[in-house]
């Protein structure tokens, strides 16, 4: 079973279109072997209403959520606790617009061999077309990750497309404290600290299409990731992440 988790926050403009596109792909390629889990990160717009309508029409769609807003990392952790066994893949809501969905099948195959698989925009075989502000922030973040965590050896730690084995993810989440964007780096740091193998696979990534929407604030979330680097590094040195 694959639990495919989509965290969302105030996404009324693109929730239904992207969820239906993703569900159609999963249904065609995985049949009964999946559930799509929408994790509502404290939305205050009509997203919950739209998600509820989708849940009534799509039989393998499940909705979880909470209030108030806590961040993408918390949304993934919250959803993971409601899943049992099998694999968990999480992705940002805009995955059907930014990425070739066949990468989901590549990730599923790779999870047979590796407990964590990362969809990477920065491998030699990857193809990424990014908006310039996010590109600059992303390059700066990657440089800082290399400086703070030279042993991590991950080219794209904050990509919103990752796969895990559910029970192992739950164990790693038990020592995670980051709720927002820094959770991605934290979960990979926990994995490396405990010798858990990670594999990056190349993906295509296009942020330049006319329907691209994101909840990312370059300044606010860039600062959160910078301070997250400091917090995670401090916990790593203190041994907080040993399982």
Strand content: 15-25%
Provide the gyration radius in Å.
17 Å
Number of strands: 9
Q: In terms of per-residue confidence, which ranges show pLDDT below 50 for 5 or more consecutive residues?
A: 209-213
Distance N terminus to C terminus? 26 Å
Give me the CATH architecture, please.
Alpha-Beta Complex
Question: Reading side by side through the largest sheet, how are the strands ordered?
Answer: 3-2-1-4-7-5-8
The CATH superfamily is identified as: Spore Coat Polysaccharide Biosynthesis Protein SpsA, Chain A
Task: Estimate the helix proportion, in percent.
Answer: 40-55%
The CATH class turns out to be Alpha Beta
User: Might you state the CATH topology name?
Assistant: Spore Coat Polysaccharide Biosynthesis Protein SpsA, Chain A
Number of domains: 1
Question: How would you classify the helix and strand content by structural class?
Answer: alpha/beta
Order of helices and strands: EHEHEHEHHEEHEHHEEH
Overall spatial form: globular
Largest sheet: 7 strands, mixed
Query: Number of helical runs?
Result: 9
Concise description?
The chain has a single domain, classed as Spore Coat Polysaccharide Biosynthesis Protein SpsA, Chain A, CATH 3.90.550.10. Helix content is 44%, strand content 19%.
Description of the structure:
- The protein has 243 residues and is α/β, with parallel strands linked by helices.
- It has one domain: Spore Coat Polysaccharide Biosynthesis Protein SpsA, Chain A (Alpha-Beta Complex).
- Residues 209-213 have low confidence and may be disordered.
- The chain contains 9 helices and 9 strands.
- The longest helix has 21 residues, at 218-238.
- α1 packs parallel to α2 (47-57) and α8 (183-193) packs parallel to α9.
């Amino acid at each position: 079973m694959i639990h495919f988790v989509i965290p969302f926050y105030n996404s009324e403009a693109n929730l239904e279109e992207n969820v239906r596109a993703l569900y159609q792909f999963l249904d065609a390629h995985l049949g009964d072997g999946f559930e799509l889990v929408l994790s509502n990160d404290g939305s205050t717009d009509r997203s919950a209403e739209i998600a509820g309508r989708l849940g009534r029409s799509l039989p393998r769609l499940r909705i979880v959520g909470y209030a108030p807003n806590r961040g993408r990392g918390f949304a993934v952790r919250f959803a993971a606790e409601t899943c049992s066994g099998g694999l968990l893949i999480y992705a940002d809501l805009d995955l059907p617009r930014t990425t070739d969905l066949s990468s989901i099948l590549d990730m599923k195959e790779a999870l047979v061999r590796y407990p964590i698989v990362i969809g990477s925009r920065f491998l030699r075989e990857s193809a990424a077309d990014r908006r310039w502000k996010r590109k600059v922030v992303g390059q700066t973040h990657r440089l800082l990750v290399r400086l703070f965590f030279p042993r991590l050896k991950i080219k794209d730690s904050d990509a919103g497309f990752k796969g895990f084995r559910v029970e192992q993810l739950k164990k790693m989440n038990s020592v995670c404290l980051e709720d927002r964007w820094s959770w991605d780096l934290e979960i990979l740091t926990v994995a490396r600290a405990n010798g858990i193998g990670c594999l990056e696979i190349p993906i295509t990534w296009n942020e330049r299409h006319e329907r691209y929407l994101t909840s990312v604030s370059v300044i606010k979330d860039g600062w959160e990731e910078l301070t997250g680097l400091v917090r995670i590094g401090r916990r790593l040195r203190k041994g907080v992440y040993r399982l």
